[in-house]
Amino acid sequence: MTKAPPGTGDQRRSQLLRGVLDLCLLALIEERPRYGYELVEALAASGLELVSEGSIYPLLARMERAALIDAYRAPSAAGGAPRKYYRLTGAGQAELAAGRHAWQGFAPAVSRTLEAGTEGERTS
Amino acid sequence: MTDEQILAICQSNWIYRGVDDTSMREMREELRAHLEEAAAAGRSATDVVGEDVAAFAAAWARERRPLRQRIGYLAGVAGACLGTALLLAHLTRWTTSLPVTPERIAFYVLFAAVFVAWELRRGGGGHLRSTVIGVVALVPVAVAAHWLNGDITLFHLPLWGSAALLLAGAFPAVTDARRRRESAAAGDRSAG
């Protein structure tokens, strides 16, 4: 699930993910309350692998401090000690909506720019 | 490195950085559960916390208690210490008006700077050690200021001025301590 970045491609992916990791976490928490490990698994299932899984915890702490999410403890389906589940607040919902809107404007613009470069290479 | 070793490194880092007990317990349990689930899935502890465990712990601690919160609190503590020292000076000299000399200003200003800088670097908690370091480091500064300026009195500080400084410093420190206590109590309730 977790890989050390051996080459530039993985480093690039890691950098890109770092920029949107908060939105991804908010989106996953919006689906249903989850605890840290579940978030890492859900990211990996979407093809988003973290260089260090634990890097989500400082981010979750920051979002909790900003009242975008709050937490409660409950038993997990996997058993064992109760886990700290994170759920979205009203402010988190608004932040996620704004983030989605920004991403929907940003991602196509990057794609257009990158594809224009590819077409330039083809014509030259 | 075993899970217990990682948890021990994290805990000592969090203590060093002034994370309160309730938060630390919660972070420790959260990390322990993650490490166990990752191990069960065949991943190593390094996959979870990275190569630099202390950096991971520090990043987490910083997000729990950010720099600006700590600066406000420490400035308050430094002000309260200064006010207390001045009130003691009023008491020992049995006067309501304290002569303020250049070496006294140099000593207190630099003491406050060293105290806050040391506590920020350390993360808070051990005020006594910071105070001792501040005093030891700055006595030579005060002596040098005295040697350079002689016995010039710049102004006289009234008793109410020292009391006001103590109250101005104590207010943010007490408010912050109360907020942390309430937050810890809320954490305990949600844990229960």
UniProtKB/TrEMBL annotation, chain A:
Q: Which InterPro entries match?
A: Metal_resp_DNA-bind_regulator, Tscrpt_reg_PadR_N, WH-like_DNA-bd_sf, WH_DNA-bd_sf
Superkingdom of origin organism: Bacteria
Domain Transcription regulator PadR N-terminal residue range list = 25-97
The cross-references to Gene3D superfamilies, in alphabetical order and at most eight, read: Winged helix-like DNA-binding domain superfamily/Winged helix DNA-binding domain
Provide the transmembrane region boundaries: none
PANTHER family reported in the protein's UniProt record: PADR-FAMILY TRANSCRIPTIONAL REGULATOR, TRANSCRIPTIONAL REGULATOR RV3488
Q: Mind telling me what this protein is named? A: PadR family transcriptional regulator
What is the organism lineage in this UniProt record?
Bacteria, Bacillati, Actinomycetota, Actinomycetes, Kitasatosporales
From TrEMBL, chain B:
User: Which keywords appear in this protein's UniProt record, sorted alphabetically?
Assistant: Membrane, Transmembrane, Transmembrane helix
Q: Which residues cross the membrane?
A: 71-92, 104-120, 132-148, 154-174
Any idea what this protein is called? Answer: Uncharacterized protein
Please tell me the species this chain comes from: Streptomyces cinnamoneus (Streptoverticillium cinnamoneum)
Q: What is the lineage of its organism?
A: Bacteria, Bacillati, Actinomycetota, Actinomycetes, Kitasatosporales
